[in-house]
Amino acid sequence: MTGTWINVAAVLAGSLVGLALRRTLPERVAGTVLQGVGLAVLLIGAQMSLETGNVLLPLFSLALGAAVGEALDLEAALERLGEGLQRRVARLDPGGRFTEAFVTPTLLFLVGPMAIMGAINDGLLGDSSLLVTKSLLDGITALALASTLGVGVVFSAIPVLLYQGAIALAAGTARALFTDPVVREMTATGGLLVIGIGINMLRLGSMRVGNLLPALAVVLVLARLVGR
């Protein structure tokens, strides 16, 4: 789990540097920085979504995943978790948007293929290189988001540890599930979720991306069935 710990450390370090910059960053500049990150997120999501070899798989996965996610209301659960953390640390960030600062990076850090394959390689082969690369990207993203949204970004390191750590520990079993076609379709589906995050960051809409997360599990199943 070395790579996961490096990833967590990068998120924490980037967040803390961002919080330090936030004290001196004019609000107008902070807003422009957030818009720039939002545009970059849209680009990343678009690149990821083009990985699909069968556009019907992400389509059906998002439809079925949305139904499951809305039934479970995962977005509300994430927001409640963020609000619960906010109540405990409100005095540290009285002017921040804590829930948004927690939910946005949490989704960004977890939906991509690097989180899955990096954790598998880390746990199964002891190869942390993919997660080290992800750590660099996540650290920069955490810095940018913390400088604009506040202390909530720090706490996104917790889901990173739990999610990637669980995959790394179960890597022996997980590796058999994540064949190249499966990873490709999960990447494409995750890319569409990342586009949704970018839309929210740019205030172009209000997508409940958290309720689309089950699509990643659905596409895993569909891609394996189609690949047989």
TrEMBL record:
Signal sequence residues: none
Keyword Transmembrane: yes
Membrane spanning residue stretches: 6-22, 29-50, 56-78, 98-120, 140-162, 182-202, 208-227
Pfam name, any one: DUF554
Name of the protein in question: Membrane protein
Swiss-Prot/TrEMBL keywords: Membrane, Transmembrane, Transmembrane helix
RNA-binding listed as a keyword: no
